[in-house]
Amino acid sequence: MSETRLRILFFAEGATLAHVARPALLTASLDPARFEATLARPASYAWVSDGGNADTRTLACQDSAVFAQRLARGLPLYDTATLERYVVDDLALIDAIEPDVVVGDFRLSLSVSARLRDVPYVTICDAYWSPERPLRAVLPVLPFTRFTPIPLARLLFDALSPLAMRLHTVPLERLRARHGLPTLGHDLRRCYTDADLRLFANFPALFPELVPRDDAAFLGPLAWSPPAPAAFDAAPTGKPLVYVSMGSSGDIGALSTIVAALEACGCDALVSTAGKPVPAALAASSARVFEFLPGDAACAQAQLVICNGGSPTTNQALGHGTPVLGVAVNMDQFLNMQAIEAFGAGLLVRGDRVSPALVARAVTRLLGEDGFARRARLLQTAHHEREGESLLADHLLRLVASRHARGARSQA
Fold first, then answer.
1. Burial, 376: exposed, middle or buried (Cβ in 10 Å; 0-12, 13-18, 19+)?
2. Integer Cα distance of 17 and 411 in angstroms
3. Domain 6-222+391-411: top CATH class
4. What is the pLDDT of residues 84-108, one digit of tens each?
5. CATH of span 241-385
6. Domain map (residue ranges) of the chain
7. Do 6-222+391-411 and 241-385 have matching folds?
8. Which of 252, 357, 372, 385 is 20 to 30 A (C-alpha) from 61?
9. In what order do the strands lie in the sheet with 101-105?
10. Is the backbone of residue 309 left (phi > 0), alpha (psi -120 to 50) or beta?
């Protein structure tokens, strides 16, 4: 352990922007007088951490397009060979940096590599994957659900999902066995969140069944925003302002459908394509379209946010007391939106059933019924009450102190 500063090594997996943005935010939050932080991230996301004070390293990651294809097809997100290569790269970085703590965001290989070097390991994750919470598996959008009646698709999914969930654990379970580590019980929740300390990047009020414990706690919502483009303007037009972003992993094709519904509802649409090409129908619409927008500012000014239902954008929206409409596709998005919908701060629409009429009905409810905005403001208030708390530093200090205390007892 450093004599003056704790040395923290962050691993930002390149599967999606969120898994890089959250570690970048946390790296920047640490006091450099107390912590020496290194951020390892893929070269393709170097722009996320540009301008930061932390030491940065290039991290080899599976191409995000491969990740997206596996996710869309319902396949395990990584194969064992990929995770084995990750372990080699992890160990090289750990040996070079000699950290007091490693912090990962969906870098599943750290379940092995951190243990091989006996370094305390923290994972940044979402509360809906917590093993202490029953996994209420919900039918995601899969190739066959687009043409199969949903009741029939749900029956098929319910019958096959236990086996499918187990198959998703096989690559990591094989990796752990190869390195002499015990099984995680083929529990997908444990495979996705295994660490010495799990820190949930969510609103605690959305998951009241989860009680903080020694190995799990809430950081609270984390949401990253790019700088504002020079032409950014969300000045009032007299119409309800709706911010629309499907994120880096969302379906860009859904934007045209959503904007058509907003035009029919008399709304002003402010759209971010997250760097993806603009569909022709969207370019011809009345929407104000940008490649990237500062989501934090857009959510603060909007009366409604429409997104893919994932935690990064919903965190931004609800942090400003703005209700959300989630057009969900993958399991993460459905699980996140289930919690938000149950709390009463938003509505969920299936990505394989999205239509202008369905979106218009949801938008009419969200803007017309005050309950959604009221519940969103409750989350905003709770979030602001916790803003003075340390997001990460205290957890890191306690983890290291606990490890040292256990070491001292074992030597006594």
1. buried
2. 44
3. alpha beta
4. 999 999 999 999 999 999 999 999 9
5. 3.40.50.2000
6. 6-222+391-411, 241-385
7. yes
8. 252
9. 55-58, 35-41, 6-12, 101-105, 121-125, 197-200, 216-218
10. left
Give the phi and the psi of residue 176 in degrees, each rounded to 5: -65, -40
Sheet of 288-290: strand order equals 288-290, 268-272, 241-245, 304-307, 324-328, 346-350
Confidence of residue 1 (pLDDT cuts 50, 70, 90): very low
Rg, the chain, Cα only: 21
**Alpha-carbon gap, residue 393 to 374, rounded angstroms:** 32
Distance CA 146, CA 74 (A): 14
Q: Are the CB atoms for 323 and 376 separated by under 8 Å?
A: yes
Chain position carrying tokens 């209700």? 323
Tokens read off for 387: 């803003």
Q: pLDDT: is 170 or 402 the higher one?
A: 170
Mean local confidence (pLDDT), 265-294: 79
Q: What are phi and psi of 35, to 5 degrees?
A: -135, 140
Residues in the chain: 412
Q: Where are the beta strands (DSSP E) in 139-259?
A: 197-200, 216-218, 241-245
DSSP per residue, 270-329:
EEE-TTPPPPHHHHTSS-EEES---HHHHHHH-SEEEE-S-HHHHHHHHHTT--EEEEE-
- The model carries a pTM of 0.91
Which residue, chain included where needed, has tokens 């959510």? 299
